[in-house]
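Reopening this one. Same input as before:
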Amino acid sequence: MTNVLQRLQTRLIRTLKLEDVLFKRLPNGVYVFNLHRIGDRNASPFDRNIFSCGIEQFETFLQLLKANFTVIDLAALHEKLERKQVINKRLAVITFDDGYKDCVEFAAPLLQRYGLPAAFFVTTDFIASKRIPWWDEMAFLLRQSVGSSYDCICNNKTINLNQSVIEKQITQVLYACKRDKTHTIEQILNSMRTQFPQASKALGNYSAELFMNWQDIKQLISMGMEIGSHAKTHNILARMTGEQQLQELTLSKQILERRLNRSISYLAYPVGRYHCFDKQTLENARKAGYQLAFNNEKGKNQTITEPYSINRYCFDEGDISTLKLNCIVW
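Same output, byte for byte:
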């Protein structure tokens, strides 16, 4: 019922064109914003939905935050929580997930120009690798196989891949994969690879360096940015046993600390929706030694009672209007 009311509220605000007025009157709290990739989504052969915005749109986003919030880093946020300080102003935190290289190339220089801090949550298995993550591989295979049909084992549906709606179809398949509790990601991928052998072969010939290397990460640190963990493999934690979860989170932290010679205190859960982690995950994050952990669920943090599940607003498709609406309604 709550989501229905929020959607109705969103529609009303949009119809009356009240986004700008209400955004300037947001209540006090911690507004954590999450991004993934920066650049031209239409030029990518991979998952285009992982692009948050283009370079110009990212600059507009930074200008928006600077004009309406006090932007702080995670260390300052943690200190406020430790001291149980009342959140008596609008605070913003900027975060990036996954560790894509274009964040160093495009996002970091603009952050530095505007004097704004950000935290970059990196998946340690991706660092300095030519690995193509599962969501990017799936998007590539589906886009390269337009004209074929795909038997999706996640929902037992057959999808006729059509050029005019392929981006929507990719989004739907990835959505189903993230919510499938019956199959592992590897099982879903293997099924797709078997169905599309030519596309799979083409991907094998594709040389990609999508992710940061260790020098890139050290460059971010030298620019005053924070580094956090996005787990070791980016597998969905809720599909792991408790022991596997703890190992996933602990190893990532240890690798980062050893390579960077600094304490790693902050974590963002892979995918980050409520169905992708569980109560045991929160306890394992604490056991692994993290001090704060972030999900990917919309919501202003007017008070933070659970430091291992802090809400974040995703900035998607460069859509500033929707981002404002989310902050107002959720």
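So the earlier flakiness isn't reproducible anymore. For the record, DSSP finds 13 helices and twelve strands in the chain.
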